[in-house]
Amino acid sequence: MPSLFTKIIQREIPAHIVYEDDRVIAFLDIFPVADGHTLVVPKHEKPNALASDSNDLADCWRVIQTLAPAILRATGTEGCVVVTNVGEAAGQSVPHTHFHIIPRRKGDGLPAWPNPPVDQDRLARTAEQIKQAL
Ligand code: 5GP
Fold first, then answer.
1. What's the whole-model pTM score?
2. Does the CB atom of residue 93 touch ligand 1 within 6 A?
3. End-to-end Cα spacing for the chain
4. Does residue 112 register a pLDDT over 90?
5. β-sheet with 79-83: strand ranges across
6. Which residues does residue 118 pair with via DSSP β-bridges, in sequence order?
7. Is residue 44 within 8 Å of 52, Cβ to Cβ?
8. Banded model confidence at residue 113, pLDDT cuts 50, 70, 90
9. Which of 23, 72, 110, 113 falls between 20 and 30 A from 10, CA-CA?
10. In which region does residue 36 sit, left (phi positive, over 0), alpha (psi from -120 to 50) or beta (all else)?
11. Which of 29, 45, 46 to mutate to test ligand 1, by most ligand atoms within 8 A of the CB atom?
């Protein structure tokens, strides 16, 4: 069954499309975190960015590099978050690879990541575990 985003690509579901080429589509998020919140989606449907072909990801990034500055100009913002959620545990709700472009401005009140202090031994242990898992 095609994903929600494939249905948007196929024009079965309406969306405010801001960019499209033969490999990538970008449209406004229906529940925007901030004005201009845009989703960049490869047309080749895969469940998440870790499963997508690297060519599809490069195509998305090419679009993000053009689109994000235009979004900042259009919304009068100073910066943006570009993020992709992988898996339900990370908050992914649509299982079709996509990147969020979320405009940010200083003092916009969006929650920041916590930065709890961590000791060097813990960092070294974690780095070792990751290297061994590769
Ligand atoms: P995720 O939670 O998977 O990282 O992001 C999915 C995004 O898709 C959410 O931010 C959600 O607001 C957006 N979304 C869900 N349904 C629709 C829809 O029908 N149209 C559009 N344009 N965005 C949607």
1. 0.96
2. yes
3. 33
4. no
5. 17-20, 24-28, 38-42, 99-104, 79-83
6. none
7. yes
8. confident
9. 72
10. left
11. 29
